[in-house]
Amino acid sequence: MLSTIAVAALPILVVMLALGGGAKLATAGSDTEPGALGRLGPAVLVPDRFRKSAMIVCAAGEFALIAVLLFAGHPAARWLPVAFFSVSTYVLWDLHRRRPDVGCGCFGEVSAAPVGLRSIGRVVLLTAMAVVVALDGVTGFEALSSALSTALSSRSWQTAAWLGGGVALLLLLSPEIEETVARLRYRAPCEQRPLPVERALSRLRASTAWRSHASMLESDEPADMWRELCWRFFVFPAHDGTDVVFAVYLSGRRPPVRAAIVNPDGRPLITLQKSMPVSVSP
User: Fold this and answer.
1) C-alpha dihedral over 232, 237, 239, 240, to 10 degrees?
2) Distance (Å, rounded) from C-alpha 38 to C-alpha 40?
3) HEC profile of the chain
4) Mean of all residue pLDDT scores within the chain
5) What CA–CA distance (Å, rounded) separates 266 from 281?
6) What residues are paired with 257 via a beta bridge?
7) At what angle do helices 117-136 and 80-98 cross, to 10 degrees?
8) Quick one: what percent of the chain has pLDDT higher than 90?
9) What's the pLDDT tens digit per position in 178-189?
10) Measured in Å, how far apart are the chain's first and last C-alpha atoms?
11) Longest C-alpha distance within the chain, in Å?
């Protein structure tokens, strides 16, 4: 059973690494707007002048891991993909906590949506697949030979079932699918996509952040609002003289909503869970 799962998981890992590396190279080589790379996971961790280089290095590392999966037979080398995906899981979780305004950058600019549990779950799944492949020790050519020799056997159907299940689960855990469909539909990046204020307010009032802090507000109508890239900000005065600032992401079916309590001068007073730095004036 372990060998069957490994044979199914290996091509998934290779394809995901190839897509991620290619997308990162395309993003690093494109004429992005100033500061755009600073909203993507691999680049947000380094200074501005090194961000394009960081994307390229990350892509080169992913292509190197493809070679390891296809050719390397040494046990130590087989665990390198496990280490890569494990570190990626930690980095995404840390970004989710510390920088909820940036995307994972897993597939370049397509992964610009804020890091969520789906993105983290996808990397956890890839880590588990890499562990299975490392434990079995199968290489890419061995997997291909095994698939050809058992093309009509019951094992091949089991492999196909595991392969189909893994792909379906990865698609379910990939927010980039929604973002890609939205881009194809609107033919414009999220930053330039129009969205009525009323719709953003509706998303806000349907969120958990709103229900958690509605009792603090003096009014249901915002005192101020503005838009920055893919975020719409709303300021609501609170009963204690402070302001509650909500930030609504403008893309996706279930967009994240962040909140923070600030003094009237714009300085954060209390940063709430999943909050982000905000100011009270556009």
Assistant:
1) 100
2) 6
3) CHHHHHHHHHHHHHHHHHHHHHHHHHHHHCCCCCCCHHHEHHHHCCCHHHHHHHHHHHHHHHHHHHHHHHHCCCHHHHCHHHHHHHHHHHHHHHHHHHCCCCECCCCHHHHCCECCHHHHHHHHHHHHHHHHHHHHCCCHHHHHHHHHHCCCCHHHHHHHHHHHHHHHHHHHCCCHHHHHHHHHHHCCCHHHCCCCHHHHHHHHHCCHHHHHHHHHECCCCCCEEEEECCEEEEEEEECCCCEEEEEEECCCCCCCEEEEEECCCCCEEEECCCCCCCCCCC
4) 79
5) 8
6) 248
7) 170
8) 17
9) 777 766 665 566
10) 58
11) 73
| pLDDT number for residue 54 | 82
| Tokens at 40, concatenated | 């993507």
Which residues, 6+ apart, have CB-to-CB distance to 170 below 8 Å? 12, 16, 122, 125, 126
Residue with tokens 């130590």: 76
Query: Does pTM top 0.70 for this prediction?
Result: no
In this predicted structure, what is the pLDDT of residue 151?
47
Q: Enumerate the β-bridge partners of residue 233.
A: 226, 247
- Could you say which residues of the chain have pLDDT below 50? 34, 148, 151-152, 271-282
170: its two tokens: 């990865």
Calculate the alpha carbon distances from 218 to 83, 154, 239, 280 in Å.
Answer: 50, 66, 6, 16
